[in-house]
Amino acid sequence: MLYAIFCYNQEDVTTAWSPEHDARIMTDLKKVEDRLSAAGRLGPVARLLPTTAATTLRKGDTPLVIDGPFAETREQLLGFYVVDCPDLDGALEVARDLAVANPGLGAYEIRPLQIFRPGGDVGSLG
Amino acid sequence: MSDAAWISSTLSSARPQAVGALLRYFRDLDRAEEAFQDACLRALRTWPDKGPPRDPVAWLIMVGRNAGIDQVRRNSRLTPLPDEAALSDLEDAEPDLAERLDGADYRDDILRLMFICCHPELPPTQQIALALRIVSGLTVSQIARAFLVSESAMEQRITRAKARIASAGTSFETPDPVQRSERLGAVAAMTYLIFNEGYSAGPGDGRAGLCDEALRLARLLLRLFQVEPEIMGLTALMLLQHSRAAARHSAEGEVILLDDQDRALWNRQMIAEGLALIDKALRHARPGPYQIQAAIAALHARAATPADTEWAQIDRLYANLERLQPSPVVTLNRAVATSRIQGPEAALEMILPLEPRLSSYFYFHGLMGSLLLQLNRPAEARVAFDKAISLAGSLADADHIRRQIDRLTAAPADA
Hints:
The complex is a heterodimer.
Chain A: H1 11-14, H2 19-38, E1 45-48, E2 55-58, E3 64-67, H3 88-101, E4 107-110, E5 113-117
Chain B: H1 3-26, H2 29-50, H3 56-75, H4 84-88, H5 93-101, H6 104-115, H7 124-134, H8 140-146, H9 151-168, H10 177-199, H11 210-224, H12 229-242, H13 268-282, H14 289-302, H15 311-324, H16 328-342, H17 344-351, H18 355-358, H19 362-374, H20 378-391, H21 395-410
Helix pairs in contact in B: 1-2, 1-3, 1-6, 2-3, 6-10, 7-9, 7-10, 8-9, 10-11, 10-12, 11-12, 12-13, 12-14, 13-14, 14-15, 15-16, 16-17, 16-19, 17-19, 19-20, 20-21
């Protein structure tokens, strides 16, 4: 079974970390990643930019673009894509295509990545 | 993270919100600060044993408010409040508190706290000192070190500034949209002032950390006002400028100009975040000075080499900025772009009329010297560089000009 693990923390605290502290945490996390990777168990790893860099496309007849992260608690996180786009407009275009393919309720939150390691250790599923 | 480190970073990130709420409650800055201080002391005593509360900010406000009331009652010999053990468990109080803390109150609290530091009667240096003390919670001795003055002088400066804002009075009414946007504008300007204080400092200068502090304040504003393109622009601008910090000075502390910087030293993560924010801002199609400056910084950040820089676009953006916010300094900056497209002659023509207004501005004489040098007019360049040195704000700036003069004397004028 493949598991996704989502990382939650207080952004006002983490964005105020000193560069040294941030680097130390990243190094310690990397050690855990390396252990998993050596065992052939690690898939993609990503660190997201702060929610202040997020934009949300709310699905609907005319999809609505909203500044900020997805904040609705009635809907749950069900999946994610990582897509290479030249800029925010490019990412919104992809989100609009997804909304056409899967219309109805819900939203797509667009968050630029700060760190991304694709990780080829694990095979595909589904 | 250790307990102590976690507690101290939680307390410092809770500060603006907690002091802002306590200020609304007590309507007195000193009392609000004292109450917050009391709450922090209790947090340091009780959190390590009992574990952190579910909502640290709400806890600090509640405990601070009770400590403040306690103080008032003690002064008037009334009944004391419940003891600490009861207070540190907020199970009963929390729903009620959470309701009141939810919503726009917080936003206006923090904005008010920052806004009182921007009183127009206070000179910029006092605004900065006050904001660092009240909003960021830096100690007086930290601020004094940054500004190279004695602790007692800084203490006095802050006390005077506080007295002045106290006598000016603060509005505790919920601001209307116009007032809110005026406050936001003043607070944004003050935040950029703090950034520039740090940015203009040479390496190893105590003020260098002010850039990080300003960024922290900008992120706070951005979280509170998520749909304000100018706040996105301000944060992007500071991120993009700060991304070059490691490349701006040599190991010997000499200034390295943009063209000569090692772009591998630029902080890619800050650039990524800055570019993401300016992308978001521009979608609003409501341009403002911070967004335009950020867009200019973004063009530099996107250029892999100096030769890839899109000077024509930068020139156009400066032209927009000139229209939006006419200032001789903007024209001076534009002249740099103009010199890259049309040559030094055109740029010189552009800046000569600025002389009366910029005669005591370091960068004016620096640019003048460098344009004259490019036009092979070394004697006049020398005069301009000498003037620049006499106006330099830091040793690194002065050294940079001196090296240009050295180059000038190394190559004979008629060569």
